Amino acid sequence: MPVLPPVVLQDAFVALEPLTLEHAPSLEAAAADGELWKLWFTSAPAPGEAAAYITKALDGHKAGLMLPFAVREKSTGEIIGTTRFYDIVADPRRVAIGYTWYAKRWQKSYVNTACKRLLLQHAFETLGCVAVEFHTDHRNLDSQRAIERLGARREGVLRNHKRRPDGTLRDTVCFSVIDSEWPDVSRWLALRLERLAG
Q: What is the pTM of this model?
């Protein structure tokens, strides 16, 4: 699979920047807002582990498996979290969106909608994807509701699919948006973002 080139995706609300080791201190500060590493369902790095977290993501990029971003909130200029494309497949062209987390004060704001709209737009309109997937822990009901609010359709559950950070096995709930649905999803996300951003 060819490596996806790093790119900046931005709108009036957020900028998704190619993730680099220079983002490590900012990501540590973002993860500290809410002590996100303590949440059983998140991939946020614990104190002192941001550089290793970023290095692993960059290794995934070099292997053609991922395209990781740092999330910058534009009104403050702060790095507030991270997200990425992963499970990149060349034919038929598909990607998953995940490894997403934000500082606690930005959760349930316009940030997630803005980020997902930019990522979906890039996947469908630039990369030519036929489908974009979302995966989440079956216990993470907030995440499932957030994905459904984006307009994604629930596909099913992969049982005993992955290990959580604590080593236990998780069932993964799978959602997707396909290319024929993107125009309607795009309009919905624009309306939702307008409402959330006030």
A: 0.94
